[in-house]
Amino acid sequence: MRISRYSKCSNVCGVMAYSYLQRLAKKDRRFMLCPRNIHRMYLAGVMLAAKLMDDNVFNNPYWAKIGGISTEELHELELFALKQLDYRLIISSDEVATRLRELKVLAHSRAAAPGEAGLFLPAPQQPALMA
Q1: Does residue 131 belong to any structural domain of this protein?
Q2: What is the 3-state secondary structure (H, E, C) of the chain?
Q3: Is residue 89 part of a domain?
Q4: What is the mean pLDDT for each group of 10 consecutive residues in the chain (131 residues)?
Q5: Contact (Cβ atoms closer than 8 angstroms) between residue 75 and residue 44
Q6: Do you know which InterPro entries this protein is assigned to (predicted)?
Q7: 57 contact partners, CB below 8 Å, separation of at least 6
Q8: CB 75, CB 85: distance < 8 Å
Q9: Is residue 36 part of a domain?
């Protein structure tokens, strides 16, 4: 995955980004990931986790280049995520372990049925935010 390759962040950052997306979906059931926004929101999550966890942190223009979006859009996504998460980015080791297990199950199920959609998204009849 491009984000992992070029960000060079620790593996836990990806798990934390997934956790942030879970928290966003839980906080507002209207929040829905779709093909147009999933990589943007994941990018913002990985960037936030890297800023919190890693010693070598890139600047926002570099992160924007990784994600193929403008720096301005990345700033907006970062602020959106921070506000929606109430600036609470710390994730316990128990939550990391839980999310890692979920990701392993998801990866296994996607390998078994690659054509099926689904992550943790709210019902499809709800409007997508941040599309």
Answers
A1: no
A2: CHHHHHHCCCHHHHHHHHHHHHHHHHHCCCCCCCCCCHHHHHHHHHHHHHHHHCCCCCCHHHHHHHHCCCHHHHHHHHHHHHHHCCCCCCCCHHHHHHHHHHHHHHHHHHHHCCCCCCCCCCCCCCCCCCC
A3: yes
A4: 83 92 88 88 95 88 95 96 96 92 86 56 39 41
A5: no
A6: Cyclin-like_sf, Cyclin_PHO80-like
A7: 50, 51
A8: no
A9: yes
Q: Residue 41 falls within a domain, yes or no?
A: yes
CATH of the domain at 23: 1.10.472.10
Task: State the amino acid at position 88 in one-letter form.
Answer: R
48 lies in which domain range? 2-112
Amino acid 41: pLDDT: 94
Number of domains in the chain: 1
What pLDDT is stored for residue 131 in this prediction? 41
- Single out the residue of 36, 40, 27 nearest to residue 120, CA to CA: 27
